[in-house]
Amino acid sequence: PMSDAHVGQNTVEQNIEMVVTQTKAVKKVTSLPVGVKMTPNVSDMVPIAQAAKDAGADFLTISNSVKALAGVDIETGKPYLPAYGGYTGPAIKPIIQRFVSEVARAVDIPISAVGGVCSWEDIVEYIMLGATTVQTVTAVIWDGYEVLEKLISGLSQFMERKGYNSIEDFRGIALPHITTVQKYAACPPNHVTLEQEKCDDCGLCLKVCFYDALYTDRQGHLNTRPENCDGCGLCVETCPRQALSLK
């Protein structure tokens, strides 16, 4: 890989010239497909990905681990590990999904996505964001190699249920629906709506609403004030009965 969060300062994959030089050097000495493993420790992966492709890379792996610190032992005041290392697992999935989608939209090259894949749903998400293949490591470490059968089975059942004959049938379908924060902020906001028949008046949503968009009436039933709603969606995520939605 061009990147390794465990050693050095990730200078290779953060330097376009070095990416080009090393990719071309490898291409000269092998007839095998050459892939470049990208680092997430950059602000913009697209120029580096484009440079790797232009240098002859056959595919990209997105991505390596996120540079992180393992935490501090508050009793001793010392870090659990005395050096920065690579952080992986489910927590980095949103970060890697961002990079996969950005590169998929800008660079025409196969992408092998890796980062936080622990379920067949994770695989589907990455493919819908433009990945050609998907890798997993954490799931195997946690649950053994038998987890791979579960991932494949879940993916197969999903494709059968949706009528997909190939991953190409749904690869990248999420990309047209991604926009910038600026454009999204300019859109008319969604407001909370309530399906009263689903609500059991548990009150969980009231605890997370900061905008006074939810209240209980004199009979103790939940009601909404859509005009106060900011559209943050926190109440929707909190509701265990799926009685709330944004429209």
From TrEMBL:
Q: What are the transmembrane regions?
A: none
Any single GO BP term: uracil catabolic process
| Entry GO MF terms | dihydropyrimidine dehydrogenase (NADP+) activity; NADP binding; uracil binding
Annotated PROSITE patterns:
4FE4S_FER_1 (PS00198), 4FE4S_FER_2 (PS51379)
The protein's UniProt keywords, in alphabetical order, are: Oxidoreductase
Query: Iron-sulfur as a keyword?
Result: no
Keyword Oxidoreductase annotated: yes
Q: Name one Pfam family in it.
A: DHO_dh
What SUPFAM superfamilies does its record include?
4Fe-4S ferredoxins, FMN-linked oxidoreductases
GO cellular component term of the entry, any: cytoplasm
4Fe-4S ferredoxin-type domain sequence ranges: 190-219, 220-247
As for family, the record states: Belongs to the dihydropyrimidine dehydrogenase family.
Record-given protein name: Dihydrothymine dehydrogenase
UniProt organism field: marine sediment metagenome
